[in-house]
Amino acid sequence: MSRQRQVLLVLLLLLIGTVVSAYLRWPRQKSVEKLKYAAGVAAPNTVPAQKEAAPVVDDGRILRLDLLDRDQCN
Question: How many domains in the chain?
Fold first, then answer.
């Protein structure tokens, strides 16, 4: 067998191996027995209510990201 055919055979085997490996690692679609909430119905709010925030004192050390959203018209 010539050297070119041997290289071709090795590359072909590598290609087949990678295709099989990719197929086996492909994520499968899973299903559940019963949905926890019916479709189209809003889920109950389980997030606890937040307490009122303490007043913010601007001492110059806070990074104000809201200033980046403004236009810079001079």
Answer: 1
Task: Give the tokens for residue 41.
Answer: 């119905």
- Asked, for residue 14, whether it belongs to a domain, the answer is yes
Q: What is the rounded average pLDDT of the residues 21-39?
A: 86
Backbone angles phi, psi at 11, to 5 degrees: -65, -40
In angstroms, the Cα distances linking 30 to 26, 27, 38, 47 are 12, 9, 18, 28
Average confidence (pLDDT) over 11-29: 95
Q: Is residue 37 part of a domain?
A: no
Give the residue numbers spanning the domain of 16: 1-25
Positions of E strands within the chain? none
